[in-house]
UniProtKB/TrEMBL annotation:
The keyword Ribosomal protein does not apply. Residues 180-204 are annotated as: Disordered. Gene3D superfamilies: Winged helix-like DNA-binding domain superfamily/Winged helix DNA-binding domain. It comes from Asanoa iriomotensis. InterPro entries: Metal_resp_DNA-bind_regulator (IPR052509), Tscrpt_reg_PadR_N (IPR005149), WH-like_DNA-bd_sf (IPR036388), WH_DNA-bd_sf (IPR036390). This is PadR family transcriptional regulator. Residues 121-148 form a coiled coil. SUPFAM superfamilies: Winged helix' DNA-binding domain. PANTHER family: CONSERVED PROTEIN, PADR-FAMILY TRANSCRIPTIONAL REGULATOR.
Length: 204
């Protein structure tokens, strides 16, 4: 997963180590906890050894976006190679069961803009099946053991079930959009859809 994310970010532009760490956190959002950032530099070294990355110099200690006390390895600028781009193309085209799990799906979804439509659709449908199975399992637990669960455990199960149902609805919306060739609607922080500035309000 970390290899995929690093190659994806460097495919967009070269970055120094400090910037790469920041972009990984921003790009991956809530799923970044699934990745050990202590493995970032070992992964970078491995990708270099494989010929997927190369060092393109070092950012000066006075570079504005790099804190003055950043270590030397945090200032090294990394650039993807032609082999690295081929490797990223192979990874982004994958749509197997590993892309349906929480972390795998999150990583691939973060790079959906660079993924072809057919692959996006396979991953979304696979993820929906995965979440539907989880939802049915939770429903079964509540039906069979609900009376034996204490109030807090029961509430936790209900919370998990609600989360599954929301995700299934979200995935179904995305699948409909993909099949019709539409991109997802932008969402504001409060969850409402973004409104185009060119759309007039026709209400009286």
């Amino acid at each position: 997963m970390l290899e995929f994310a690093i190659l994806g970010l460097l495919h967009e532009s070269p970055m120094h180590g400090y910037e790469l760490r920041k972009e990984l956190a921003a790009k991956l959002g809530s799923i970044r906890a699934a990745i050990s950032y202590g493995s970032l530099y070992p992964t970078l070294r491995r990708l270099q050894s494989a010929g997927y990355l190369t060092e393109a110099g070092e950012a000066a200690p006075t570079t504005p976006e790099v804190p003055a006390l950043t270590s030397k390895r945090g200032r090294v600028v990394y650039k993807i190679t032609a082999e690295g781009k081929e490797r990223f193309a192979d990874l982004i085209a994958q749509a197997g069961p590993e892309t349906y799990d929480d972390a795998g799906f999150g990583i691939h979804f973060a790079f959906f803009a660079r993924t072809d439509q057919a692959t996006r659709l396979r991953i979304l449908e696979g993820r929906r099946r995965k979440v539907e199975e989880r939802r049915e399992s939770m429903r079964d637990v509540l039906a069979r053991a609900g009376e034996r669960l204490d109030a807090y455990t029961l509430e936790l199960q209900r919370h998990g079930l609600d989360a599954c149902e929301r995700e299934v609805r979200w995935l179904e919306e995305l699948i409909v959009n993909e099949r019709s060739g539409r991109q997802p609607e932008g969402r504001k922080a409060d969850g409402s859809a973004e409104t185009s500035p060119h759309v007039q309000d026709e209400r009286p």
